[in-house]
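Provenance

Sequences were taken from public entries as deposited. Structures were produced by running a predictor on each sequence independently, with no templates supplied. The record for Tetratricopeptide repeat protein from Streptomyces jumonjinensis is shown for reference.
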Amino acid sequence: MALFTRSASRCSLLWEVPRSATVRFRIRRAGRLSAEGQQAPIRDGFSVTATSTAPSRRRVLSRLGTETSSSALGRVVVGILVVPGRATGTEVTDVVGGHVGRGRWRWTLGRLLWAPTGAAVAGGIAWAVARVGLETADQLSSVIGGTAGLLGLAVALVALRSPAPVAPPVAGGGAGGRWVRAAAANASYRAPAVQAPVRGRDSELADLQSLVAGRDGGLVVVCGTGGLGKTTLAAQAAQQAETERRAVFWVRWQDDAARLAHDLTRIAQALGLPETRLHDAQNGRAALVDVVWEQLAAVRGWMIVIDNVDTPRNLGPGSEPPGSYRGWVRPDGGGLLLVTTRDTARGTWGPRAHLVPLEPLAADPSGAVLRDAAPAAGTTVEAAALGERLGGLPLALDTAGRYLANPTSRYRTFTAYQHALPTEFGDLVGAEHPQATDPEVARTVVRHTFDLSLAQLHTDGYTLARPALFLLALLAPAPVPRAFLTPALLADATGQRVTASELDASFAALHQYGLISTPAVPPADSGGGDALTVGQVAMHPLVHDVIALTAPPGTDHTTCHTALDTHLTQTVRDTTSAGRAGWPTARLLAPHLPPLLHRTSHADFTATRNLLTNLASTLQDAGATAEEHLLSQCVLDAETHHLGPDHPDTLTSRNNLAVALDNLGRHQEAADLHRQNLTDRERALGPNQPDTLSSRNNLAVALDDLGRHQEAADLHRQNLTDR
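Predicted structure for Tetratricopeptide repeat protein:
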């Protein structure tokens, strides 16, 4: 839509154009050029100003904006060429809007109609004068002229008191239709509504509220991996700001610095940016980004949210990082600028940014989210249990809640849904979406939201990020020793050439986008053991399960498992031979070894079983009773399956498991296993065989730990007699 306005010797042409278009304009009168120029718009509705110094041209431009009924408009041709790409576009030869200019065909038609009409009027006047005489005609013309003047005055008064008619909506094509379609593409700056109560984020909301209420403004970065509810938290903060009568603007990042410039310029205009400063930027006398932030710094009481800035290096202008504070994201405003992002690096956002990192929800708030969505699906305790299984990830909780609230779902309770997850995870939480190629859809689907981060990392040059994360997902959802993740392991799994620097950079990028974490190292006297004194990486359990669903292109599950088994075997050997120095690594390796034993062939079973048994012995020496119990249980289950329940090796492993239970303080379970082992050994080996005597002694120790001292003493006395 075009609109002419008048200001002294200037005429401004407003035209709605596609984003990132270039406008060339030319104004002519009766074939003579009045003004021309070219303008790259800063917003969809922008101002192109044509200034003329010649008096004749100044009259043309001023009349153009005011005398809509004048025939002078018909003599003015305005040509506008909108170029959305390089050299293509649409030429508009008429002007529509508040002041309607006539096209060439209407001008020609008007002249053709006016010529015979004028001739007929002139002939009629001549005939009337000849018929009634000159004196009578003069008197008659005075009466007619006076009457016409009074009628014209009355019409003018009515027109001045009446509102301007509203043009009917334009359907279909034409310039009006094009304007409507272009304007409809502009997103609203209103914050999205929060659909449900925000649970478990009280401290973060209080922090944001205090920053909004402060007078210093600043830059706040709400960061974390996909699915943590960053947008929801920002929307809730924006809603609170609106209740405090703040001017709130919501901008959705579209990976386009020009679009962000457009949005922030319009916001600055809404906050009072003078047209003179905007003209300075248009004419190159000032940088637009500086002009906009000059206004944002001068005005208080606003809040701007830029949502989902997952590619901060594209914020612009230029290639400088946002932390340089020379681009569109700055901490200098009189209000609060809030950015949501997956990039958690302090170096990205600079020293003056206030980072608000989000973590998964605890069990109780997770259960509350599920109960909000599906209140009839079970109790608070059942909801909390499911929430804990889903890792407290708000996106997963929302997915499960919507599923359970659907009356056609196969599972309608929290408990049934949780029981189905081990076998149907890919169909429930990890279900694919048919429109996942759209990033706005992908970020709302658990199966695809992490792919957005991985795709961005691949685009940024971290080609090992996806295969490295997939290898981690094939291990147990527990911390992994960083030393285990070597270039040789990645090379064997992917068939690519891998260097240590490339692998280090990929893990750093995964950490930056929240896809892996590095558990903190506790103080030496905290009682946390030695496991956290070595470098390690971990994945969120739900991220682990989702990433494991789909192998990266060119990666094979079997090849990856073979590489993992080979390197795990070698790492366990190195750890057990290292003595005390290997204890921290042994504790971290333990959760990842049961699948190794399950995948081993029958021919290699004994060697792998011995490997785990040796590591369990190392863990016993290290006092890592939980990890010792895990491996002992795994070995016993495997031997029972491969060798049978009465095999001597199986009985030895059962004894080891009972010892591990006793060390954990689970004395009754230990006593029960020792009694079963004693009975089986007496039957298979006899009452006086050394292994039988060992089982009887261990049972006596377990009974003594239970406080059943007399029974323990009787068993010790019997053992002494039999020896």
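The longest helix spans residues 104-132.
Confidence is low (pLDDT under 50) at residues 1-103, 164-173, 523-531.
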